[in-house]
Structures are given as C-alpha cells and as structure tokens.
Amino acid sequence: MELDYQAIGVRIRRFRKARGLTQQALAERSNQEPSNVSHIERGATKLSLPTMVNIANALEVTVDDLLCDSLVESKDAFRREATELLADCSHWELKVITGTMRALKETLRTAGEKPAI
Fold it and tell me: Is pLDDT above 80 for 15?
C-alpha cells in the first residue's frame, strides 16, 4: 500500500489548527522550515520518517494519528479522532451526531462488501 501524502497533510493541518498553531510555530517545534510545513500540508512533498516523528511530537499526537488513512489497522487513531471531535459538542449536537452515526453504521453493515483501503 502506498502512503497517501495528501491525507497525511490534511491531518497535520487539522491537528495544527486544533492546537492553535501557525505553520511557523509548527515549523519551529518540529525543526522544519515553514515552507516545508506548507508543502507537507498540501501533500506536495514526501515526509521522511524523522520528519514525521518530529511533527507528531510537536503536535503531541502519535504517528498512527497522522498515518491512519494509509494503515490497514488504525482503529485506535480513528477512535481518538472521534473522541476529540465530540469533546466540545453540546448535548443537542451529540444527540444528532449519535443518531447519524447509528444510521450510517446500519447502512454500511447492510450494504454488504467493504471497499478496499
């Protein structure tokens, strides 16, 4: 399986913004050039393993959190993301999201075959 660098970049941007960091601040924390952070977030460049680890550490996430779209087994990363997404929801938002999730899960399970990753 090939790495999805665009998905990795989207996740890095999402985590960076959720932590209130600018590209400059992430660059400083991860020993990168700001232009490199921009390229990474757009999926325009491939990351080395040391760069991936530095960025994960700077964002205080796991490498799995960044790579989960390219991993066959990444349930924990998706669970963490779901928990983070729900953390600031109101009671009403949680009710709507839970109902939507329940309906979506039922639809996915009755649809039959799972798509290849």
Answer: yes
- Res 74: pLDDT: 78
| Predicted TM-score (pTM) of this structure | 0.70
Q: What's the CA gap between 51 and 30, in Å, rounded?
A: 8
Residue among 106, 81, 92, 97 nearest 10 (CA): 81
Query: How far is 68 from 20, CA to CA, in rounded Å?
Result: 22
Please answer whether residues 12 and 41 qualify as being in contact, where contact means their C-beta atoms are separated by less than 8 angstroms: yes
End-to-end CA distance of the chain: 9
